[in-house]
Each structure stands twice: as C-alpha cells, then as structure tokens.
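Schema walkthrough. Field components (list of strings):
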Amino acid sequence: MQPYAKPNLDIAGREACHVESMGHSVAFSDASMERFRHLLTRYPNKQAALLPTLWMAQQEFGWISTEVIEYVSELLELPPSHVYGVVSFYTMYYRKPMGKYHIQLCTNLSCMLMGGSTVLDALQEKLGIGLGETTADGMFSLDEVECLAACEMAPCCQMNDEYHGPLTPESVGRFVDELRARGK
Amino acid sequence: MAKVKIQVNGREVEVDEGLNLIEAARIAGVEVPHFCYHPGLGVDGNCRQCLVEIDGIPKLQIACNSFVKDGLAFRTDTERVTRMQAGVLEFLFLNHPLDCPICDQSGECLLQDYYISNGKYESRLDTDKRHKRKAVPVGPRVMLDAERCVLCSRCVRFCDKVTGTGEMRIVNRGNRAEITTYPDRPLENDYSLCTVDVCPVGALTSKDFRFRKRVWHLQSAKSLCTGCSRGCNVYMEHEGGKVYRYRPRENMHVNDFWMCDPGRLTYTPLNDERLDVAIVTGEERTLPESIEQVGTWINIAVASGQSDSVAVLVSPQSSTETLYAAKRFAKDILGGARIGGGNVRPAGVQDEILRRADANPNSKGLEMLGLSADPAAVLSAGGTVLLVIDDDPLGMNPDLAGAFGKFEHVVYLGSNENATSAKAEIALPITPHSECDGTFVNFEGRVQRFWKALTPRGDSLWSPTIMGRIAEFTGQEFGWKSVRDLWADLQKTEDAFAAIDYASLGEVGAAAGSGQPASASAE
Ligand code: SF4
Ligand code: SF4
Ligand code: FES
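Field assembly_structure (string):
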C-alpha cells in the first residue's frame, strides 16, 4: 500500500480550460475569409469544418488564443466550449505564442539510437531554453516529438513545415545560426 | 409498432421493433450495466460498459448501439461478458477517488452498483492516482468533482441536445481528460440541475441538495411540480416529515425526463412557514372551535337568506378537488354565493422546452370548472364573510386589502403563513399537495395525479373535509370520505370531467375530453 498522498491543492483551484489571451480581437484577412468560405462548401455542415478552420486560424494568427477560439466558434456557430474541447485534444494546436521557428526534435527509438539525445543537449544549450520553451526574442520554440516517420534521416527534426536530418551536435548549431540569419 | 421475438439470456420475449438491447433487456427484466446511454439523450457508445454476447457474432457488442430484430438472441450472463464488464469497470475506476463516505451520490451511484454486481476485483493500481479539480461550482446550482467523472458525456449531450446551450465539454485527452465549462460561460441554463440527474456518478451534484440527506434515508412519492402550468411529473423525496428534493419523473406526454431548475426548487413552502394550526385573531386555537366559529357565521348568513353576502376567492394554485369543493360550497351549501379565482401569480418565463408563463399548476382546472379567473367580481360588493382558499392574494397584490376590508370576516384556508393568513380573522390549516392525494390539470388539459407523501402537519386537514365540516353547521354535508368519493360527484356534475375516471388516471394522467389513459391520447 502506498501512503495516502494529499492531492496537490493547485489542482483544486486550477481551470481545466487554459488558453492565453492575445489581448485584442482577431479576424481573418479577406483572402483567408475567401478560403474559409470555400472550405465550408466541402463539408455537410459547419461543425465538420472545425479542424481545418482552426488550422487556418493557427497559420494566420500563429497560435490559438481565447480570442481565436471565440472567433472560430462564432464563424462556425459552435459553443466556445466545443471549440476548446477540440483544441485541447490535439497537441498541434498551440495554446500559447510560439517562436517564429518551431523546432520539434524526434527522440524516439531510431533517432535516439543515432544520437538524438546529444543533439537535444546541443540544441538546448545553443538556444538557452528547455523543452516546451520559447526564446526571449520570440525566434525559437523547442519541443520533442515521437517519431516523425523519417527514420532514414535520423536523428531528425521538423522545423515549421520542413524536415532536417541527419543532425549532429555540430550541424544543429550551424542550423540555428542560419535560421537566425534568415529571421533577421 | 411491429413486434419482434428475441431471446434474452435464453428467455423469449416479444418487444417493439427498433429498440436497442438495453431497453429490450429491461423489458425482459435484465439490467445491462451502462453509463453513457440514456433514453432521453440517445446512444453515444463511449463507456463500453454495456457489452453483451449476441448469438452469431464472434465479438462482444455494445448493447446500446445494437438493435433488436426478429430471432435475435443475446446473453448478459456468460463468463466472457462478466469478465469484460469487470475489466471495463476497472479502467473506469483507475483514477477514481474512493470518496463514497463523503460523496453525495453514494447510494444512487452506478459505479457503486456495478462494482457490487459486476466488479468486486482487487485493485491492481500501484502508482499514484491522477488528481483533478474537486468541489468547484460549474454554475450557480451545480457543483463539479472532476475526479469522480467517468466521462460518459451525458451532461454534455444534455446541454447540447436538450437546452442547446452547450456549456459542458470534455477537454484534454487520455487520463488528463476532464469535464468542464468554458471560462466565463458557467452552466446556468434553466435546466442545469437535470445534468445532476443524468450524471451516473457523484461528479455533478446539486448545491441545493448536497450534504443534506443520505439518499438511502429518503422515501419517494409520485407527485407533480407546482411551479407552472406544465405540471412536470416528479418524485417527491422526503424523510421525517420534510421534503428534501424533487426529481423529474418520466412522462413522455408532459416533461419527458426533465424539469426546470426554478420548478425543482418550489418544494420549500411544503416545509417552511407552514400554517399547521388554526389561528383566530392572532391566537392559536383548536381546529374544531375555529371551524365552529366560521360555521356559525356562514349559518347565520344562510339562515337569514343573505348567502349572497358570502364570497369565495379561490386560486389556480389549488388542486382540482379543492376547487370543486369550493364550487359546491358556494353553489349548493350557500345557494349561489359569489365565487371566482384570481390569477394573481405574476407570469413567469416561458420557453420552448418546458416552462410556461402561467405560474399556476391548475389554471386549466379552474377554467374547466367554469370558475372565473377575475377576483374583481367576487370582491367588489363586500359582504359578511370572505373565504379565501389557498395561495397568498394579499402578499402578491397588497392593493386587494381595501376590497378585503369591505367584508366583516375574512377566513383563510391555506397551508402557509403569509400576508393573507396574517390579515385573516381566522386561518385554517389545509394540506398542501404533499399531504393528500389529488389532481391538477395542466395547460394542455391533461389531468394528472399527485400522491400523498406525508402525514398532514399539525392540525391540517384536506380542504374538502374542512369545507364539509363548515357546511355541517348549515345542516348540509358533502359526504366525501376520499378523493374517489369526490371524483364520483365531480364526474357526474361537471361536463368537462365527465369522461375522466380518477381510478384510471394512472401515473401519466389523461387528456381531458378523451378519458383515455395518456398512451392512447393524441399529443
Ligand atoms: S461517485 Fe460513486 S463510487 Fe465514486 S465516490 Fe461517489 S459514491 Fe463513491
Ligand atoms: S460529469 Fe457526470 S454526466 Fe458529465 S461526463 Fe462526467 S460522469 Fe458523465
Ligand atoms: S451505454 Fe453502451 S457504450 Fe455506454
């Protein structure tokens, strides 16, 4: 038997729903609105268009804030609680601001065997942040992911929509420098 | 509806086509354990507790989403089924706190029931349980304990499908998944307490009821909500002479499985500020001497040929029996005294679900008895005796005080102390609908029964009995010993009720005019 552990009191008070606020209202650009309207024609009802609409919103606004949830819920005539439920189910919808370059490093079996953990250490040191964090200049966010289905280039990472690999502790340092130059 | 023959655990039964196996088993007297399915919310298929073995299908199937067809045979009692039920239950219990001793659902919790009937395994968990939020208000009337939730989504579907307000949601996933509302969008629709009813466990509890009574002490009587003219069917649950809560009682002709929150909280006058002894000019008196006083006044009026100086003010809050007795009292005993009722309760909210603007449970009964709903004609001329029966006309309309003042004696028959009882010269205690049998007629003309739950408080008597005792002083009597006696007369003398037989009203009532039990009447 384990001794009885008191529940962490924080849990009792915390909101189950947690999304940060942008502090200002959001709206799709005309071009996105056009795409959104087209999107609706492909589904039997508005609710069915929720996932791609959220994805479009994330591309346009960078992440999913309270304001984005409420905007999308109005567009699709859904309760905000429903939109939040969906957002919170998928890890690829971001509920806080992300860096301009989001590096997701694979630390699953193949990548780990090929030296993934040394790459991870090098990346953390180079960027000065830990997993799940964003650099102070808003340039980089770092996460680990489970298998990018690109074992032939292990150890590898996904940076925004691009795949990179195989990586070494040295090459990853150069990669960060390049990105920094690109982002200036 | 077409019937099909099926076999449940080897026993043949005939059931309606289209039923799912949970309902079909119920007809055969077999309970299939289930959490997510609810007849008012439909099939969701998420809990997997309802697995059964269907002949000819190799894998176990969920009973909620399998439907009967002719010749179908299924079993709920095989070793495979029972092992699987225990397995599913073990998963649902993994992170469940052992709160039973402090949990308000204890005693009416499906987890408890199924653990005893189908679980009884030893816990194999040797890591910490996952903790979630406890005792957080999700709305003004409902408390949430997220650890106890089995994620059946009944509350979610209730708010989506029934009220259309969509407050409740399951967020996150895996063992982090939990039930919640969106920030600043609390669960505050007018039917929010129904989520407490549908919640199979102690995750959602009623702020009004929690910690006030262990449910196994409660006794239950079939009754009606008196909050508006819908007349939702309820269970009135009580102990030790006190009503603790209303729970909706299924009646597909009236309220389906639901009732509104304001209605659910209308039980309090049955407990509080009760008028339970006779009061004569501010002093407690025995009932017989108080009745004698009233009887004497009435007799003098009748004997001196001045019965038109007596007036009877009735209320659409009264039962049909009270109204009928009052009508007979005015017409026969007094030979045509003024009688009518005041629709004094202010109109409430009306919605598309259940709530009706008319806040009286028996306006239709008043109308069917041909009694006017306008107090002005009754009160205008003043006179010797004013009999006020039920409710609180003075409290709701203080302007009536002038009209009341034009009577020499004001006598009140009611169940609560209020402005009217305080003003009356004599106040006589009558039984409210928790303490007698009777009927109300809802806005659609459905005559519905309520059943006596409690013994009358103090000296309270059934109002037709009190009116009968008063009548005796004029040398006349009604001769009603029970509701049945009264109804025999009612059926004979009132055309609107001619086709309705009290004995056959049953649990769902009957539509006036048809005389048929509800199942046969058109909606
Ligand atoms: S929900 Fe049921 S099993 Fe769980 S703690 Fe409450 S009473 Fe016990
Ligand atoms: S709170 Fe109750 S009704 Fe809602 S999902 Fe949880 S167990 Fe089901
Ligand atoms: S009742 Fe069948 S899966 Fe829940």
